[in-house]
Amino acid sequence: MEPVSPENEQPPSSAEARAGGPGYGRLHELFRGSTSADEGAPAAVARACVDLMDVTGASVSLYGGPDVRTVWWSSDPVARQLAEAQFTLGDGPCRTVMEQGGPVFAADLEHGVDAGRWPLFARQAADLGVEAVFCLPLATAAESIPIGTLDLYRNSPGPLSERDQAFAFPAADAITTALLALQTQDPGVGTDLDGSWLNAAETDHEEVHQATGMIMVHLGVDPPDALARLRAHAFSHGKSVTDAAFDVIAGRIRFHD
User: Fold this and answer.
1) pLDDT at 155 over 50
2) pTM above 0.85, yes or no
């Protein structure tokens, strides 16, 4: 998406034009605002998805590496838990998007192909009352690796309509633009992200890295095995991997062979 300044507004792109109908005007205004380093811009676009599409909730997750992930924004507790569950399990639509670089639409997590793609995640989603998930990569045309995902969920099964798809793809573009504007802004400008969303992603899981290191020492295993054991413990006890990491650091749980 080409940056557009309010002083020199250009006609909407083809992606924007496909999002015609109810809500198009609001999306176009959000596109214009997404080019500025405004911390509220990505959340405003994601919120518009919830308000104007046939979805129940949404979240924006950012990635700083294979095991560094933070939920940057969520519309509700279920959206946040759904995103956190995928980090805990190390699997799910978000992970597939990050590995393959393309969108992943799971229209029915209880039946058929979608239920079998990520069986543990599908069970977690069912426990949260989620039956469909639609994940889009946050990436630019110049970068093949996404910086994160826009994740939409619905508490009823069914595919994303053509109109909603026409809204979702340019919305993901706008969120990407807004996040990159934040990343390049002056660190001195006031922001809860300390000048960089990547720093936020790394800070959010410092506890996970620390706990993984402790498990490595206790068991004499390599980092992937240590993280896998932490995730398994979190899943079996109904916790997020971050909460399990806090327990390890505080000495409330110890791992043994």
Assistant:
1) yes
2) no
